[in-house]
Design the sequence.
């Protein structure tokens, strides 16, 4: 809140030379007030920048997760695609994406200003906002790369990644996050969808569903990897990734980055809800980190025991995917629900993931990282979850006070928010299917999508990237495996002592 000072009011209290003294005091107070404003801007921008750094670090998590989930012969290929998601995404989001997403003033469908960051920064956005939103855009592209791993031509990666980050994703983020978007809860004209707008705080739909559905169409149009399903009976054959260690490392890096993804989506931290109390945005940021943690932890444990019952194994890769499914689901409503509700979110998210994986197997759908099931399925559940459990007081704090605001159905808020969320699911599915599905179909018709069967069997590292990601010592005698022989137990010696073989 700005400090105010009136020289006229002070002059009455100061006696002789009152006007000059009052002008001096007000000038000093004005200087102090400007310093407070400067500090507030600095704190909020620093908070957003560090959140952007955390979200960007998720690219390393994606790279490690993808590398560990594919076979060793394709490691270099999948890591290179993750690097290019960031590089190509950065250029195309700078040229077009940010303008399509947040260029204002605009219409409800797409932004029209700030191409190449022209006339930027503005009163409503600084460079930290661009960096943060770019990190989100490349996260969506990274999701898609996992679905089409181990069989996709390199040029197809470049084309789809540029198109997704430069056009498809920005349009969706404009709809739900821009002040001009037709379904945004931030609309300034008060014309909100169902009186509330679609609530997707950090992107269960905008990021995760977009990336997951794009990957779904890519994998469907390409078809499964060679050897994934038995040709005679259609039985699924596991093509396991080569490194559980990299999967776990990538999962923890993503977990760490999610604390920028969800809490960072407030954009500001120095906002007071009740002046002079602990009730401020800093507390909401902490609550959001807690709900994120609880949803992921619950989903991980649910997946652990669920897979134990289904397969009889304690599988670390499945647990990691379950954890990430919980994170993807809570992302949409992490700031507007109570911590206890996040546990419900994580539990159901794990069930959704297990169910989607079973369905994918029956339909002979092959997704090496379960990206479509995890991000698409759990992301959709996250939007529905928000419609059921969103608290009215949290919605008013974050999206502006509105008497009688529709909120969670189970919280007594009626069904309007649920209607808005279902519309969000439908329009995201339709938009991404129409754009990315068409793109992948065109690439297939132009023979630019899938590699040859020979290259796929040999592995893309050797055929497309000049060598394997790891060193091998098959011809080195010192690295050959030691042959072990079975040692049979011997009879006790006459003296009663047991002879131990040397």
Sequence:
């Amino acid at each position: 809140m700005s400090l105010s000072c009136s020289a006229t009011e002070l002059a009455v209290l100061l006696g002789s030379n009152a006007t000059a003294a009052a002008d001096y005091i007000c000038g000093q107070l004005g200087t102090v007030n400007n310093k407070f404003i400067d500090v507030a801007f600095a704190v909020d921008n620093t908070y957003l920048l560090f959140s952007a750094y955390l979200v960007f670090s998720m690219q390393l998590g994606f790279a490690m997760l993808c590398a560990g989930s594919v076979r060793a012969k394709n490691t270099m290929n999948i890591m290179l695609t993750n690097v290019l998601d960031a590089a190509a995404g950065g250029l195309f989001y700078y040229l077009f994406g940010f303008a399509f997403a947040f260029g204002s003033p605009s219409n409800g469908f797409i932004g029209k200003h700030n191409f190449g960051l022209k006339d930027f920064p503005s009163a409503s956005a600084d460079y930290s906002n661009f960096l943060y939103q770019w990190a989100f855009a490349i996260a969506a592209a990274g999701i898609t790369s996992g679905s089409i791993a181990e069989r996709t031509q390199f040029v197809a990666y470049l084309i789809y990644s540029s198109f997704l980050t430069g056009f498809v994703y920005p349009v969706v983020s404009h709809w739900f996050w821009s002040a001009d978007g037709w379904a945004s809860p931030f609309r300034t004209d008060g014309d909100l969808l169902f009186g509330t707008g679609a609530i997707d705080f950090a992107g269960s739909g905008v990021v995760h569903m977009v990336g997951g559905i794009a990957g779904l169409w890519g994998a469907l149009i390409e078809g499964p990897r060679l050897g994934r399903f038995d040709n005679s009976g259609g039985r699924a054959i596991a093509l396991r990734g080569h490194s559980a260690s990299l999967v776990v490392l990538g999962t923890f890096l993503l977990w760490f980055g999610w604390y920028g993804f969800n809490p960072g989506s407030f954009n500001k931290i120095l906002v007071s809800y009740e002046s002079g109390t602990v009730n401020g945005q800093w507390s909401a940021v902490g609550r959001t980190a807690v709900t994120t943690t609880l949803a992921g932890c619950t989903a991980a444990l649910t997946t652990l025991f669920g897979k134990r019952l289904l397969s009889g194994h304690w599988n670390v890769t499945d647990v990691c995917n379950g954890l990430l499914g919980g994170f993807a689901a809570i992302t949409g409503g992490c700031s507007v629900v109570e911590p206890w509700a996040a546990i419900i979110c994580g539990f159901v998210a794990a069930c959704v993931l297990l169910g989607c994986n079973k369905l994918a197997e029956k339909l002979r759908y092959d997704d090496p990282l379960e990206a479509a099931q995890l991000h698409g399925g759990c992301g959709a559940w996250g939007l529905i979850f928000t419609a059921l459990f969103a608290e009215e007081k949290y919605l008013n704090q974050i999206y502006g006070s509105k008497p009688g605001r529709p909120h969670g159905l189970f919280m007594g808020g009626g069904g309007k928010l649920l209607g808005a969320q279902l519309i969000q699911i439908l329009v995201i599915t339709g938009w991404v299917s129409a754009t990315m599905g068409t793109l992948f179909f065109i690439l297939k018709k132009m023979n630019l999508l899938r590699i040859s069967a020979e290259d796929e069997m040999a592995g893309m590292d050797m055929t497309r990237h000049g060598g394997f990601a790891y060193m091998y010592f098959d011809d080195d005698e010192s690295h050959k495996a030691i042959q072990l022989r079975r040692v049979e137990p011997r009879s006790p010696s006459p003296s009663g002592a047991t002879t131990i073989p040397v």
Summary: Confidence is low (pLDDT under 50) at residues 473-489, 492-502. Residues 18-69 form the longest helix (52 residues).
